[in-house]
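Per your request, structure below.
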């Protein structure tokens, strides 16, 4: 049997994480885009939606190569954290792709992941620039950045 016809367990789990993360993020983006009024931000959402849709289409092609657990094996239970914030979604995507690449043994999957990592890096940069230009992310002012963190955390805690 040619071992390369089946993905390894560890890369299958990384593939699962990427697809689950992006699928939930995509659902969230599609729900939220209707509420976005700023035309440039709405465009960033649209670009993000298109990119994630493309990522999912490419990654789903590898699912038929995933090994299937035997009935007597315990299934892995994942409780991943999904961010509602576009910047965190992009940043986490970059991190997830970098980790997945280090776990990938299949060259074709590695090539797709590297391509998608580079796209995620560009996506993150676009969102960062948008936020920085509007003063939403004062990256070079630690004191202001921490004040925003505290304000956001308190807001989240006070929400019912």
């Amino acid at each position: 049997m040619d071992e390369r016809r089946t993905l390894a367990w560890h890369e299958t789990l990384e593939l699962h994480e990427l697809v689950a993360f992006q699928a939930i993020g995509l659902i969230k983006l599609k729900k939220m885009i209707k509420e976005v009024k700023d035309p440039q931000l709405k465009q960033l959402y649209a670009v993000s939606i298109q990119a994630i849709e493309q990522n999912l289409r490419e990654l789903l092609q590898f699912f038929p190569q995933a090994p299937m657990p035997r009935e007597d094996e315990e299934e892995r239970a994942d409780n991943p954290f999904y961010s509602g914030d576009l910047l965190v979604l992009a940043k986490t995507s970059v991190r997830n792709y970098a980790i997945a690449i280090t776990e990938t043994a299949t060259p074709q999957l590695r090539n797709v992941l590297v391509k998608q990592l580079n796209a995620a890096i560009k996506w993150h940069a676009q969102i960062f620039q948008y936020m920085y230009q509007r003063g939403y992310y004062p990256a070079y002012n630690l004191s202001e950045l921490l004040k925003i963190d505290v304000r956001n955390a308190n807001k989240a805690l006070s929400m019912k």
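The mean pLDDT is 76.

Regards,
D.
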